[in-house]
Design brief:
Blueprint (H helix, E strand, L loop, with lengths): L3 H11 L9 H8 L15 H14 L4 E5 L2 H20 L4 E3 L4 E3 L6 E6 L13 E4 L8 H10 L1
Parallel strand pairs: 1-4, 1-5
Antiparallel strand pairs: 2-3, 3-4
Amino acid sequence: MTSPFKQAWATLTAVKRRDFTRHQKAKAFIDSPALRKMAKAGRRGSKTTASADMAVKGLMDGKRVVYGTPTSQQLDTFWREATNALWPLIQNNTLVMNKTEHTIGYPNSEVAIIAKTLWNADTARGTYGDIIVLDEFQLMNESVWEDVVQPML
C-alpha cells in the first residue's frame, strides 16, 4: 500500500510546479541536501517563495515544518505561496488547512506546515519541527535562535 505522503506528492506533482528559471539559485537552494541553509539575496530574489517550496517539499516527505518570520506581511506572502501550491490537496481533503492558526497538515497527524510570526522567542514556544525555516532572521530577536530554535532541532 502506498503511503499517504507518496499519494499526495503524486497528486501535487501532477499539478504544474513553479518555474524557477528566473532564479536558478533559488532552485539550487531548495534542492540542496545541506542540513543548514542560508540565502542572502536582494529584494524579489524569491527567498520567501523558495521557503514555501521547501516547506511543501518537507510536508510531502512526511516532515513537520515550522516557518517563522518577524512580520505578518512576510507571513502572508509565505502563506499565499504555500496554500497555492497545496490547494489541490486541500480541496480534495487530503490536507486540512486552518487559516487562523496558519497550519496545513494531514488529518489526525503531526505532519504539517506551521507558519508563525517570530519577532521574539515567546511566539514559538511549545512547538517543534523536523524542518525549521527562518525568513528575515536578521530582524528577529537574538533569543529566537538560542532559546527556541536550537532546542527544537
